[in-house]
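Please, why this fold?
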Amino acid sequence: MQIPLYLMFDFEDKKTYNFNKLGVIIMKWTIAQLKKKIHQDPTFEATVDLTEFMPKDEDLIAVAPTTVKGKIDIEDDTYFHFDLNIQTTLTIACARTLEPVEFSVDVEVRETFTDDEDDEYRQIDGISIDLSPIVWSNIYLEKPMRVLHPEAKEDDSFEESEESKRKGHPQLQELEKFKS
């Protein structure tokens, strides 16, 4: 089931926002909307909720509301270029303590969509372009493999401590008395 899209024009800010039925800002435009927008104001800014894209079984705990600023450029009525600045904060579980660690993401990307199937760019799906999955994939690419909480010890040495060398294995303590 597809949720219908609603368009709102804010006369004070002179910006257009797309909403779904639930009132969540989405980043989906039809080709006609983009062609009209390029002549009015090719820039956009939105704060979107991307929690629906989060994987369920990962160390990713939460994603803060994501700010996306961008500019649209249309080339030959075939190529739709989006220059995006994506900013958010990911909450990731520490690799050692499982404590939450906040990781800031600030990335600049350029995404190009086309309806030409022979091109290497992203294909336009139907008559609209949805940037939400593209924004999420760029955020996910910036996520580090592992993070450490500031209070977690970064001790990757595998050397025995002096105390454990002196004591030895507890079960072998009794053999010490037979040592001559």
